[in-house]
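Two records follow; treat each independently.
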Amino acid sequence: MKELHIDLDKKKKSLPKKAYGILSVIFSVLWIIIQYNDNNLSLFNIIYSLYFLLLGISFYYDGLGKSLSSLFGGAFIDLTNEYFKIKPSTFSKIYSFNWDKIKSIKIGVVNIEIIGADDKLHKIDLSTLDYPVVIELKQRLSELSKNTVLENIQLIKN
């Protein structure tokens, strides 16, 4: 079986976002310089300039195809012949399962329920994922169930 590795924080690159980010950074620097030369530098002007600086940096970073949330841990899906790991969103926990420690997998519309060998139920919410990613994950789990890797696992589809 072909392995599945998906970075859920990866975005499409965007030239307009990069351009807006650069313009915001330039605007914030020029704003401080103009206010300083006019002897009108106040706390409001500094905060205003910092806001546009941070906005510009975040838009530029987003335009590069990267997510700011990836700096805090990221989100991913790893599906191999040995294990299944998923972190649906940046601030959710990592679910990690070895195939030999799984008793059954129930694939629902917006979640996956995994019952381990110790009869503990793990519900993984897929509602935050893009629809094509959910479809790909469900297809790969179905393919795996037909493979020898999951022959001892009961796969239930809703």
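The next record belongs to a different protein.
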Amino acid sequence: MYAKERRDLNGFVVRKAKSYRGDVWAYLTNWGYRTLNDLDGVGFAPPSHADLADLFERRVRERAKTYDTYYSNRGHGISDSDVETMADHAATAVLRDWSPEWIREQRERGRRGGQISKRKPSWTDDDLDALAKLAHLPMQARADALGRKLRTTERMWSALRGR
């Protein structure tokens, strides 16, 4: 059964879904991009829209929860009548947005995000000078004297040696 919230062992929510349809849409598009990349990687041309839509429709019918609107209570899932429409729209979006450089673009986005998210050191040059004066003390005593955690003091010491 589909759960809108996924919880860890302590009961905390670790993932919140917007909707089942949204999750299936994200799955189809990501799977479509990867499929086109695999085909491109071995030298095949991208499939036609009809072929890709058919592939998506079969994938949804195999893996997603579907229901017949006349014979079941609604619940989570995609109605049988919406499967074909969703597959067609997903194929259109994937063929429109995909490029042979998709994997490289994704890696570049991740690299840029990793560069942006690096924090600056929490100490100044004056803090490093004060640490240099405490060189005769053990590392824990240096941390206590500066009012810093041990690991931060170790990083400061490493930066001081690299200066």
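Discussion point: The mean pLDDT is 83. How would you locate this feature using only the token line?
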